[in-house]
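Bug #77: duplicate submission created two jobs. Keeping one. Sequence:
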Amino acid sequence: MPLVLLNKPFRVLTRFSKSDERATLADYVRLPGLYPAGRLDYDSEGLLLLTDDGRLQAAITHPRHALPKTYWVQVEGEPGPVALAALARGVALNDGPTLPAGVRPIGEPAGLWPRDPPIRYRAKIPTAWLELTIREGRNRQVRRMTAAVGLPTLRLVRAAIGPLALGALEPGQSRAADPAEVAALWAALSAPRSARSASRLRGPARN
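Kept job's structure:
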């Protein structure tokens, strides 16, 4: 079973070994020999790929492939055109400017599960959802990007990695990728970088 899709729940560490009382991948996936292909923060949710294929794991995580990753981001505040344009062209972080990103406002994603515990709402301060696609994997990058444009992230859900989408997986659920999905992932990893960028990255939606 070379590739498994997991919906990583909130407050689960992206590792199988346990060093304290926090939940890990071992609490949800019992298949031996799997390793996470990339990371997802403890306080983030959504799609995580697991594989027993070292070559595939290395390809997914290597920066040269620039595999797009799409997130649903609930932010505090109302995203205006200036903030959206800044996210789209790249923002300056303390470790350098980010690459251009795909960004568009969305409604709350259909079928999204409630988070436990729920986010902290503040009276008279609205929240909004964005779909954000990036091609980098810096530490807590999405949260730092939205904070840099005045939109603190309240909830972060990874919806897709390359051609593979979260779909109907509930938190903690996993499934094996079918051969067509594995082939599509390898094709995305093998495609020229310009083709991957054009297929997944778009600027702010225009009304």
